[in-house]
Specification:
40% helix; 6 strands; alpha/beta; 209 residues; 6-stranded mixed beta sheet; Rossmann fold; 6 helices; globular
Length: 209
Protein backbone atom coordinates (compact mmCIF):
# COMPACT_ATOMS: atom_id res chain seq x y z
CA UNK A 1 0.00 0.00 0.00
CA UNK A 2 1.24 3.43 -0.92
CA UNK A 3 -0.08 6.04 1.49
CA UNK A 4 1.42 9.28 0.21
CA UNK A 5 -0.52 10.58 -2.79
CA UNK A 6 2.06 13.14 -3.90
CA UNK A 7 3.91 10.85 -6.30
CA UNK A 8 0.83 9.69 -8.18
CA UNK A 9 -2.27 11.60 -7.14
CA UNK A 10 -0.93 15.01 -8.19
CA UNK A 11 1.10 14.00 -11.23
CA UNK A 12 -1.56 14.13 -13.89
CA UNK A 13 0.87 14.55 -16.78
CA UNK A 14 2.69 11.26 -16.23
CA UNK A 15 -0.18 9.30 -14.69
CA UNK A 16 -3.41 9.28 -16.71
CA UNK A 17 -6.41 9.11 -14.39
CA UNK A 18 -9.32 6.83 -15.16
CA UNK A 19 -12.41 6.62 -12.96
CA UNK A 20 -13.00 2.92 -12.43
CA UNK A 21 -16.73 3.00 -13.14
CA UNK A 22 -16.58 4.89 -16.43
CA UNK A 23 -18.19 2.81 -19.22
CA UNK A 24 -14.97 2.65 -21.22
CA UNK A 25 -12.58 2.45 -18.25
CA UNK A 26 -11.17 -0.99 -19.12
CA UNK A 27 -10.54 -0.02 -22.75
CA UNK A 28 -8.84 3.21 -21.65
CA UNK A 29 -6.66 1.26 -19.26
CA UNK A 30 -5.74 -1.25 -21.98
CA UNK A 31 -4.77 1.59 -24.33
CA UNK A 32 -2.55 3.20 -21.69
CA UNK A 33 -0.85 -0.12 -20.94
CA UNK A 34 -0.18 -0.56 -24.64
CA UNK A 35 1.44 2.88 -24.85
CA UNK A 36 3.98 1.91 -22.18
CA UNK A 37 4.87 -1.53 -23.51
CA UNK A 38 8.56 -1.82 -24.47
CA UNK A 39 9.74 -2.46 -28.01
CA UNK A 40 10.51 -6.07 -28.77
CA UNK A 41 7.81 -7.35 -26.43
CA UNK A 42 8.07 -10.86 -27.88
CA UNK A 43 11.65 -11.08 -26.58
CA UNK A 44 10.94 -9.59 -23.15
CA UNK A 45 8.55 -11.10 -20.58
CA UNK A 46 5.84 -8.79 -19.23
CA UNK A 47 5.31 -9.42 -15.51
CA UNK A 48 2.55 -7.96 -13.33
CA UNK A 49 3.44 -7.79 -9.62
CA UNK A 50 0.27 -7.29 -7.58
CA UNK A 51 1.17 -5.94 -4.15
CA UNK A 52 -0.96 -6.03 -1.01
CA UNK A 53 -2.56 -8.25 1.58
CA UNK A 54 -5.95 -9.86 2.12
CA UNK A 55 -5.71 -8.92 5.81
CA UNK A 56 -6.68 -5.31 5.07
CA UNK A 57 -9.67 -4.39 2.95
CA UNK A 58 -8.08 -1.27 1.49
CA UNK A 59 -4.79 -3.00 0.80
CA UNK A 60 -6.39 -5.97 -0.96
CA UNK A 61 -6.60 -4.28 -4.38
CA UNK A 62 -3.36 -5.82 -5.67
CA UNK A 63 -4.05 -9.43 -4.67
CA UNK A 64 -7.65 -9.13 -5.87
CA UNK A 65 -6.37 -8.06 -9.30
CA UNK A 66 -3.89 -10.94 -9.28
CA UNK A 67 -6.59 -13.44 -8.39
CA UNK A 68 -8.93 -12.17 -11.13
CA UNK A 69 -6.10 -12.31 -13.67
CA UNK A 70 -5.29 -15.91 -12.75
CA UNK A 71 -8.84 -16.77 -13.83
CA UNK A 72 -8.27 -15.27 -17.29
CA UNK A 73 -6.08 -16.18 -20.26
CA UNK A 74 -3.68 -13.22 -20.37
CA UNK A 75 -0.76 -14.77 -22.24
CA UNK A 76 1.85 -13.45 -22.99
CA UNK A 77 1.70 -11.81 -19.54
CA UNK A 78 2.80 -13.30 -16.20
CA UNK A 79 1.14 -12.55 -12.85
CA UNK A 80 2.44 -12.71 -9.27
CA UNK A 81 0.54 -11.78 -6.12
CA UNK A 82 -2.91 -13.23 -5.37
CA UNK A 83 -5.22 -13.62 -2.40
CA UNK A 84 -3.84 -17.13 -1.94
CA UNK A 85 -0.19 -16.11 -2.35
CA UNK A 86 0.03 -12.37 -1.65
CA UNK A 87 3.13 -10.23 -2.13
CA UNK A 88 3.49 -7.87 0.81
CA UNK A 89 6.05 -6.12 3.01
CA UNK A 90 7.37 -9.32 4.58
CA UNK A 91 8.13 -11.23 1.37
CA UNK A 92 8.42 -8.49 -1.27
CA UNK A 93 12.22 -8.54 -1.65
CA UNK A 94 12.36 -12.34 -1.88
CA UNK A 95 9.49 -12.45 -4.38
CA UNK A 96 11.17 -9.88 -6.63
CA UNK A 97 14.39 -11.87 -6.53
CA UNK A 98 12.51 -15.03 -7.50
CA UNK A 99 10.77 -13.25 -10.38
CA UNK A 100 14.08 -11.98 -11.74
CA UNK A 101 15.53 -15.50 -11.54
CA UNK A 102 12.59 -16.99 -13.42
CA UNK A 103 12.42 -14.35 -16.16
CA UNK A 104 15.26 -12.87 -18.19
CA UNK A 105 15.14 -9.06 -18.22
CA UNK A 106 11.43 -8.81 -17.33
CA UNK A 107 9.41 -5.64 -17.89
CA UNK A 108 7.65 -5.35 -14.52
CA UNK A 109 4.38 -3.54 -13.91
CA UNK A 110 3.65 -2.87 -10.24
CA UNK A 111 0.02 -2.82 -9.09
CA UNK A 112 -0.87 -1.38 -5.70
CA UNK A 113 -3.51 0.51 -3.76
CA UNK A 114 -2.93 4.04 -2.54
CA UNK A 115 -4.70 6.77 -0.59
CA UNK A 116 -5.41 10.21 -2.01
CA UNK A 117 -7.76 13.16 -1.98
CA UNK A 118 -11.49 12.71 -1.47
CA UNK A 119 -12.36 13.64 -5.05
CA UNK A 120 -9.84 11.10 -6.38
CA UNK A 121 -11.19 8.03 -4.59
CA UNK A 122 -12.03 5.41 -7.21
CA UNK A 123 -9.46 6.69 -9.70
CA UNK A 124 -7.00 4.33 -11.41
CA UNK A 125 -3.64 5.81 -12.41
CA UNK A 126 -1.13 4.47 -14.93
CA UNK A 127 2.34 5.81 -15.58
CA UNK A 128 6.03 5.24 -16.03
CA UNK A 129 8.21 4.47 -13.05
CA UNK A 130 7.85 2.16 -10.07
CA UNK A 131 5.49 1.81 -7.15
CA UNK A 132 7.20 2.47 -3.80
CA UNK A 133 5.30 0.31 -1.28
CA UNK A 134 5.40 1.44 2.33
CA UNK A 135 6.70 4.94 1.57
CA UNK A 136 4.06 6.57 3.72
CA UNK A 137 4.79 4.47 6.81
CA UNK A 138 8.59 4.69 6.74
CA UNK A 139 9.11 1.13 5.57
CA UNK A 140 12.27 0.56 3.57
CA UNK A 141 10.88 -1.65 0.80
CA UNK A 142 12.10 -2.16 -2.76
CA UNK A 143 10.60 -0.11 -5.56
CA UNK A 144 8.55 -2.25 -7.92
CA UNK A 145 8.15 -1.91 -11.64
CA UNK A 146 9.18 -0.10 -14.78
CA UNK A 147 5.64 1.25 -14.81
CA UNK A 148 2.79 1.30 -12.30
CA UNK A 149 -0.96 0.92 -12.01
CA UNK A 150 -2.35 2.32 -8.77
CA UNK A 151 -5.89 2.61 -7.45
CA UNK A 152 -6.93 5.31 -4.98
CA UNK A 153 -9.12 3.38 -2.55
CA UNK A 154 -9.66 5.91 0.23
CA UNK A 155 -8.68 9.28 1.71
CA UNK A 156 -5.19 9.99 3.04
CA UNK A 157 -3.98 12.28 5.80
CA UNK A 158 -5.29 10.86 9.06
CA UNK A 159 -5.02 7.43 10.75
CA UNK A 160 -4.15 5.65 7.51
CA UNK A 161 -4.15 2.13 8.95
CA UNK A 162 -7.63 2.70 10.38
CA UNK A 163 -8.78 4.11 7.04
CA UNK A 164 -7.47 1.03 5.23
CA UNK A 165 -9.23 -1.34 7.58
CA UNK A 166 -12.50 0.53 7.01
CA UNK A 167 -12.32 0.84 3.25
CA UNK A 168 -15.35 -0.62 1.49
CA UNK A 169 -14.62 -3.95 -0.15
CA UNK A 170 -17.30 -3.20 -2.76
CA UNK A 171 -15.23 -0.29 -4.11
CA UNK A 172 -11.94 -2.19 -4.01
CA UNK A 173 -13.45 -5.21 -5.78
CA UNK A 174 -15.00 -3.08 -8.52
CA UNK A 175 -11.69 -1.29 -9.06
CA UNK A 176 -9.90 -4.65 -9.22
CA UNK A 177 -12.38 -5.92 -11.82
CA UNK A 178 -11.77 -2.87 -14.00
CA UNK A 179 -7.98 -3.20 -13.75
CA UNK A 180 -8.11 -6.93 -14.50
CA UNK A 181 -10.41 -6.36 -17.48
CA UNK A 182 -8.08 -3.68 -18.82
CA UNK A 183 -5.06 -5.95 -18.54
CA UNK A 184 -6.97 -8.77 -20.21
CA UNK A 185 -7.93 -6.46 -23.09
CA UNK A 186 -4.30 -5.32 -23.38
CA UNK A 187 -3.14 -8.94 -23.62
CA UNK A 188 -5.63 -9.64 -26.42
CA UNK A 189 -4.52 -6.53 -28.29
CA UNK A 190 -0.86 -7.48 -28.03
CA UNK A 191 -1.65 -11.04 -29.11
CA UNK A 192 -3.48 -9.75 -32.20
CA UNK A 193 -0.59 -7.43 -33.08
CA UNK A 194 1.93 -10.26 -32.68
CA UNK A 195 -0.17 -12.52 -34.91
CA UNK A 196 -0.45 -9.79 -37.56
CA UNK A 197 3.31 -9.20 -37.43
CA UNK A 198 3.96 -12.92 -37.87
CA UNK A 199 1.55 -13.14 -40.82
CA UNK A 200 3.15 -10.13 -42.50
CA UNK A 201 6.60 -11.65 -41.98
CA UNK A 202 5.52 -14.98 -43.48
CA UNK A 203 3.94 -13.17 -46.44
CA UNK A 204 7.10 -11.16 -47.10
CA UNK A 205 9.18 -14.33 -46.90
CA UNK A 206 6.96 -16.03 -49.49
CA UNK A 207 7.21 -13.07 -51.86
CA UNK A 208 11.00 -12.99 -51.73
CA UNK A 209 11.50 -16.72 -52.33
Amino acid sequence: MKFKPQLFDHNKASSPRIMHDEPAAAKQLAAEIGKHMPLGISQRPIVFVCIGTDRSTGDSLGPLVGTLLKEKDISPFYVYGTLENPIHAVNLADQLSDIKRKHINPFIIGIDACLGRMKSVGVIQIGEGPVKPGAGVNKDLPEVGHMHITGIVNVSGFMEFFVLQNTRLHLVLNMAKTIASGIHEASRSIERKSLLTTLNWDLNEEQTT
